[in-house]
Amino acid sequence: MTHTVEKIGGTCMSRAPELLDSLWLRDDPYGRIFVVSAFGGITNRLLEHKKSGQSGVYALFADADNDEGWSEALTATGAEMIRLNGEILADVGDRQRADAFVRDRIEGARACMIDLQRLCSYGHFRIGAHLMTLRELLSGLGEAHSAFVSTLLLNRNGVNARFVDLTGWRDDAQPDLETRITQGLEGLDLSADLPIVTGYAQCSEGLMREYDRGYTEVVFAHLAAQTGAAEAIIHKEFHLSSADPKLVGLEAVRKIGRTSYDVADQLSNLGMEAIHPNAAKILRQADVPLRVKHAFEPDDPGTFIGPEGGAAGRVEMVTGLGVYAFELFEPDMVGAKGYDAAILEALTRHDIWIVSKTSNANCITHWLDGSLKSIRRAERDLAKRFPNAEITTRNLALVSVIGSDLSSLGVMRQALNALDHAGIHPIAMQQGTRRVEMQVMVDKDQMAETIKVLHRAMIEEAKDDVEPEHPAIAAE
């Protein structure tokens, strides 16, 4: 096959008119399949804000503290969708069609939620049993809207774009994902049709249950694997770079260029979202190469992600994440079993993401990404299980130095030297045997400066000739 499957993120989708020149109309528009995310901010409104946790339609409905709150939020989301229609579509007829599409989906969802609320007012039915289904329904509204509007925009500009709705709207069937994709693409000729596919697909597997908000990339990966794409491409509003340019400066960052799936997994673990780990696994197994490109710099080849990875002895990225250091100290732990399993079970039960972990004879520390409320619940559970243990939680930062192969670099030594010169004293440091990542834990308010210092020392001032790993560091 010679076609590509390409995904466009939400921020880029909000600049859809600019994508006409930089992406959709640049060359031959055909021989490609586009998977689109919802316009920027829409999924936050429909579910909850991904970073701040502010309640959206779903969260307000699930909390059920205010019966009118979710309905008002749904109305506001529909109004925002219609505002975007006016911003993106110049033709009056196209705007009218897009507005009617929004009203149909929003009011359809509202009717479902009212009926669900009424049904669960009877004692035999519990709202909790239906929340995941509702979350799936609401998620699909955003992707369906962006795909429909993009199709209208392309049609108006002479492209035979086809709206491919995988959301299962008003569909009484529930096929598996493979069948849903096959049915969606049925009858399309990629030499004359440009499919615009929703990033959410309703299927018997339940994408939200398994991947939550990573579903768009999973649909994208399945589509590329199932159709035998020559390449899978993710379009972002920035290059996959060595650090956040807003933090270290646009002139200081370097485009990664080439890296490994192993590095992509480390970035996902830190919330960098190069690609969802499950999506990367699907592409790996199907032998479909992956590329991350800047949507508005079409001449740049972007960053290629494959099994080989980048050059050895090169730091590719320095990034950071605010974490909680969750520490359980128990003098009687030495030689005893069950502590690790109990902690893992508590953290899993309260849906807390484990970023990293370290342990010694009588102390186990997990570096966690989650709400403090959930972590406190896990802490109470473990205090009951181990009444003699001392359990502490601290808000810190984890700064990560990442590369395809860091084995020839004395990264821990370099990091200590650079941080010492900057007057930054790490709370902890660790490096695994695979040598793709080195982690530094510092106070939360030192995260930005730590990233700047390590990026300058290991990327901006990096030498072409690298020194071998110091024996003492290699033994750690």
- Characterize the biggest β-sheet: 8 strands, mixed
Q: What is the count of β-strands?
A: 14
Structural class label = alpha/beta
In total, the number of domains comes to: 2
Question: Can you identify the CATH class of the largest domain?
Answer: Alpha Beta
How big is the Rg? 24 Å
Residues in helices, as a percent range: 40-55%
Overall, the morphology is globular
What is the CATH H-level superfamily of the largest domain? Acetylglutamate kinase-like
Architecture per CATH nomenclature, i.e. the level-2 architecture of the largest domain: 3-Layer(aba) Sandwich
Specify the number of helices: 18
- Distance from N terminus to C terminus (CA atoms, Å) equals 48 Å
In CATH terms, what is the fold-level topology of the largest domain? Carbamate kinase
